[in-house]
Amino acid sequence: MSSSNELWTLAEAPDQSGRTAVVTGSNTGIGLEVARGLARRGATVVLACRNDTAATRAKQDIEDSVPDADIRTTHIDIGSLTSIADCARRLHAELPAIDLLVNNAGVVAGTRTLTVDGFESDFGINFLGHFALTARLIDLLTAAPAGRVVSVGSLSHGKRNAALDFDDLQSEHSFGRLITYSRSKMASATFMVELQRRLGAAGARAMSVGAHPGGVRSTILRDQSLLTRIAYSDVVMTLARLVTQTPEQGALSILRAALDPAAAGAGFFGPAKRWGLVGPPVPVPVSPLAQDPGTGRRLWAVAEELTGVEFVIGTGDRPLRDDVPADRGRTAASPESAADSG
User: Fold this and answer.
1) Each residue's pLDDT tens digit, 16-41
2) Residue range 241-289, pLDDT digits in tens
């Protein structure tokens, strides 16, 4: 077992045979590598993704690299409350318990767009969707011997301008690509801490933790334009490697949060080097703003109201409300949900 100052590796994580993990947005990038890492430790992994074809390819990819991996897929659009409810019902029908829920799917919206339920996409996908999913699965998580919820965050939640503005949570008046994203990740971190606070108060065995992957390299924007050819030139990419790492490396923080027996409730993990952008995963601070109990309670109440999902933590036998209209929370028509990583 690693101390906080030692190099943590996936190989030292406990065997996960007999345990079931659900990972959202796991068909590509960090989510795929988290799923692969869990499979390597023996877990049954459910790839919860929006793109069914990509999920099938990811399943095959993991099975090709991990002998005897037990990989399953299920459809979910984290930007749709109806899809979230449908997914939760399927998982209840298929699984007696969930040992790990990794809330990974996310989006960085370049412009202010809305989910099908009318939520600003960053806030709706990065926070509200995972709030609703966790609420609908909490009974399966508390039914497990040691259930764990991992919220995948961002180093940006610690920025000064990431403080939540309860008068403009959905950036109707102050949308900015990076500010809005940072605030959505602040909401996620605040939820992570408040969930642990409530799990503890309920005497539940489950635990809530978080992690951020640091700076992760991606070629998702590569095309034939001059600008991107420069951006992906050998010189620029060589310099970028000083402050970025591969998805497999970035996934280690999330895997440590999920698997380290020494992790504490509301603990947060991230890379150790170069301003928290690269390196082995270690415990790192959560923003003090995310730890404020008053903010946590207020955000929780807002999320319940917007999603129409009552988040009950108890013995796991109390059903959640299923009478919520599909358009609950809709403020404007939107032809489709913003794309996320799943």
Assistant:
1) 999 999 999 999 999 999 999 999 99
2) 666 788 999 999 999 999 999 999 999 999 986 666 788 999 999 999 9
Catalytic residue among 181, 191, 268, 300: 181
Which amino acid type is present at position 98?
I
Is pLDDT above 70 for 238?
Answer: no
Catalytic, 232? Answer: no
Least Cα distance to 38 among 75, 4, 72 occurs for 72
Domain ranges of the chain: 15-215+250-307
pTM of the full structure: 0.86
Asked if 49 contacts 42 with a C-beta cutoff of 8 angstroms, the reply is no
* Strand positions, DSSP E, the chain: 20-24, 44-49, 70-75, 100-103, 148-152, 207-211, 268-273, 278-283
CA 334 to chain centre: 24
C-beta of residue 199 within 8 angstroms of C-beta of residue 265: yes
Token couple for 123 = 């806030």
- The values of phi and psi at residue 294, to 5°, are -65, -40
Predicted confidence band at 340 (pLDDT cuts at 50, 70, 90)?
very low
- The CATH class of the 15-215+250-307 domain is alpha beta
Task: Retrieve residue 61's tokens.
Answer: 């990819």
